[in-house]
Each structure stands twice: as structure tokens, then as C-alpha cells.
Amino acid sequence: MRGVNPPPPSGATHRIICVIGYTGMSMTDAQQARRYRFGVYEAHTGTGELRRQGLRVKLSAQPFQMLCMLLERPGELLTREEICRELWPDGTFVDYEHGVNSAINRIREALGDTAGNPRFVETLARRGYRFVAPVERLDAGEDAGRRTAEFPSVAAMRQATIGRQQTAEKETETEAGFRILATPEELPKASHRVVKTLFVLLQIMYLGFYVGALANLSEIEELFSPLPRASEAFVVLILTASILIPARLFVISATLFHAPGARGKFLKLWSFLLLFDELWALSPFLLLHHINVGLALACMTPLVYSPFAQRSLVLMGACEKATS
After folding, report:
1. For the chain, which domains are there?
2. Do residues 203 and 211 make contact, with C-beta atoms less than 8 angstroms apart?
3. Running along the chain, 324 residues long, what does each successive block of 10 average in pLDDT?
4. pTM for this entry
């Protein structure tokens, strides 16, 4: 009948209506449709799709909306309160803490990202989130004429992906002899606690080498005596041990107390430490009064790799504070 208003929806129904209404309004507005490109990924707000090298990545509506909010403001803090106001206006979703955490986890799963070593979404403890990768934003209207080229058929996308993989394999084979240092993308995902513990133990190991050498100078001097330039080698040992003790203490302290910029500082210090770490890989031979040459050689071999292991652990997040 005209003039009679229908009853208001119940609480649960009202929440569903509000969320669906927000989703439809934000995702189907042609004027607001944009494409965001970051790394090998593209997000298209007009179609609600996330793609990796042309192949669609499964991501549900609300996590996709949150991803678009982060992409709209790269490098800026997006607070949990802002996310709540956008995704659940008028308080339509009470347990928003769980909703935000769940959406962020879905985003990280889709992007192959982690909280401990973020490449895309960084957590700022008790404050919110920030998108840390470079983002290229394109208006959907600018690319309307190229839609077919950007979203080809499944067969064409598979063929293109195979071609890219073959090209990447050839480049890898060509560059393998020239690039021995791992990149963050090539390193495995691991627990922050495990990575940090291994890194600190390596620093303590080197600290033990230096202190042990300085504590047994008379024995080492006798061991050096048959060598040519024995006195110069002995002085080098004393000087390097004396310099590297405070350097190792600095690295340990910066790691344990999560010093700002510790990762960048260690990577700059790494080139300096590399030379000395390779030199001190010979330290097992300082124990020839107690072990044989074969055992000393066996102990030396992993120490040659140790500087590269330290760099990898830092890239995996050893010097960073664990976040959730």
C-alpha cells in the first residue's frame, strides 16, 4: 500500500546489505575504475581482478578492496580505523579486528608476501599497514583500446607465461657465473625467530674466534714461527681481532635491540666484513696443536660460506622486528 514504509532490516541483514552496497558502489563505478601495476602484479578495480603476469590470482572481494586502498596510497600509513570506516561503514561489522587481520592475511597469501619480511604490505604495530613496493597507477579509460591485449585468452596467457619462463631460464643460465649473491626474492621463507637466532649465533661464533686467538697469543706465535713473514702475519691477526670485536658487538646489539636501519647498515658493513671473514675462515688452523690438518680443513670449508649465509639471513629479516 502506498504510504506504508517497509520494516527496517534486521541487524545481520543490515550488515550484509551495507557491505554488499559498498562493494557494488566501489567496484562498478566506471569513473573510479583504475589499474594498479606493482612488480609482476596488476589490480583492476573495474573488474575486481588481481593478475600475476596475466594470470588471474584468486582474491575475494573484501581483501581486494583493502588491497586497492593500500595501492591508492603507496608508502603511506593506512590505519585500522580508516580500513574499518571504508569496509564497514556505520559500524556494520562489530568484530572488525578479526576482519582486518583476515583480509591482510588473504592479501599476503595472494602476493606470496610475509609479515616478517614484507615485500608489499608492511605492518606498523598497533597502528595499521603500509604498501612498501613501487606502484604504477593507470586510469582504466586510458587502456580501454588495449583491453584485449592486456587480458588475452587463457591459451594465449599460458603460451606467454611459458615463453617468459623459458627466457628467464636462459637468462639465469647465462648470468649464473656472474651473479653469486642471492636476492630477497630467491631466498626461502622462514620463521623470524629461527633466522634471527642463526644470525646472532654466527656473530657469537666469530666473537669467540677473536677472543680465543687473543687469549692464546703465545701458542699462535709459536705456530706462526716457521712461516715466512711470521711477524707480519702475527700483527695482522692481533689488529683484525681487536677491530672486529667491537664490530661484532655492534651487529649483535643492533640485531637484539632492533636498531632502526640495522638491515641497511649491516649490508653496507658486509663488504668490509667479507674480506676479514674469509681471512678468519683459516682460524681452525690456529688449533693445529690440538687437531690435525684434515679436521682443520673440514672446519674451514663452511666458514668460507659463512659471510654469504649472514647476508642471506639479513635479507630474510634477521635484523628486523617481528610483526604480525
Report:
1. 11-140 (1.10.10.10), 184-315 (no CATH)
2. no
3. 45 38 40 80 90 89 90 89 78 66 88 88 88 82 43 45 50 48 80 93 95 94 91 94 94 91 88 92 92 94 94 89 64
4. 0.49
